């Protein structure tokens, strides 16, 4: 990977680390371990949405196996599902090293970036949809419910709700780094979005729409609303991680791909 692309990939990774740790660092229920090799976040619940490890070295070498095993075994001993995020080339030895520790490849995302100053968010929005930053404990509860709906009736859905329930509403409503947004139709929350204000970038996360409300432009409207909100507060880089199916949507808005992000999981070891 060229030097500039490496720097951009590290920018996306740094924003994700900020997103993973910004609530955990100030919570007695959660634990963050930071080393020169990895960041590990234990959210205090059996949830691989919020239990994350991020490898920090440029490449995983065979000699690093014990270091990765340290963070993997931490969650295995608790029988907590976790996700290990890697920004490295899957053709490297990273893949085989993680497989040897019992991790399965769960998903591949595309890290993307754009210059906020160059973006022109679409201001069109479905007439029935109202977009805003969360303003109450009830907003937070409904935000969590939309995200949980992505997991159906699974234990993960329960834990996603618990994760937000264990946060202080006052803290979430006034957080300087994490800003949560909702889209409502007749006072029912139907879509969500999140901005993470890291030191060197703004990250977009959690764009989700209730299944029964999809196909009505709510997700696109939320995305453009988040871009407009980001531009109000910052200049510089905006980053996100897209599924392969969604990459063209972001390309049309001015985002460029920088690298693949592979997510590995241990959930199968407990099911």
TrEMBL record:
EC number: 2.3.-.-
Keywords, sorted A to Z: Acyltransferase, Transferase
Superkingdom, natural source: Bacteria
Record PANTHER family: GNAT FAMILY ACETYLTRANSFERASE, N-ACETYLTRANSFERASE DOMAIN-CONTAINING PROTEIN
The keyword Transmembrane is assigned to this record: no
Pfam families in alphabetical order: Acetyltransf_7 (PF13508)
Name by which UniProt lists this protein: GNAT family N-acetyltransferase
GO molecular-function term, one example from the UniProt record: acyltransferase activity
InterPro entries with a match to the protein in the record: Acyl_CoA_acyltransferase, GNAT_dom, Trichothecene_AcTrans
Annotated N-acetyltransferase domain residues: 129-271
Entries under SUPFAM superfamilies matching the protein: Acyl-CoA N-acyltransferases (Nat)
């Amino acid at each position: 990977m060229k030097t500039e692309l490496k720097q951009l990939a590290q920018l996306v990774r740094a924003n994700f680390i900020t997103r993973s740790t910004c609530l955990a660092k100030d919570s007695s229920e959660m634990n963050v371990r930071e080393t020169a090799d990895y960041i590990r976040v234990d959210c205090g619940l059996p949830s691989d949405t919020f239990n994350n490890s991020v490898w920090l070295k440029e490449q995983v070498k065979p000699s690093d196996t014990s270091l990765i095993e340290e963070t993997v075994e931490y969650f295995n001993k608790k029988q907590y599902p976790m996700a290990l995020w890697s920004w490295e080339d899957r053709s490297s030895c990273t893949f085989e090293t993680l497989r040897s520790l019992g991790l399965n490849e769960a998903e591949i995302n595309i890290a993307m970036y754009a210059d906020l100053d160059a973006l022109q968010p679409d201001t069109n929005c479905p007439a029935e949809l109202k977009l805003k930053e969360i303003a109450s404990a009830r907003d937070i509860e409904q935000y969590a419910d939309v995200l949980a709906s992505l997991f159906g009736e699974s234990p993960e859905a329960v834990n996603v709700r618990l994760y937000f329930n264990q946060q202080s509403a006052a803290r979430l409503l006034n957080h300087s780094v994490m800003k949560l947004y909702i889209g409502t139709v007749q006072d029912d929350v139907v879509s969500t979005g999140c901005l993470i204000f890291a030191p060197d970038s703004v990250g977009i996360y959690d764009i989700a729409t209730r299944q029964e409300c999809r196909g009505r432009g709510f997700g696109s409207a939320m995305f453009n609303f988040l871009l407009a909100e980001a531009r109000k507060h910052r200049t510089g880089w905006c980053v996100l991680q897209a599924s392969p199916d969604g990459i063209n949507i972001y390309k049309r808005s001015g985002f460029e791909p920088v690298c693949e992000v592979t997510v590995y999981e241990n959930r199968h070891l407990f099911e």
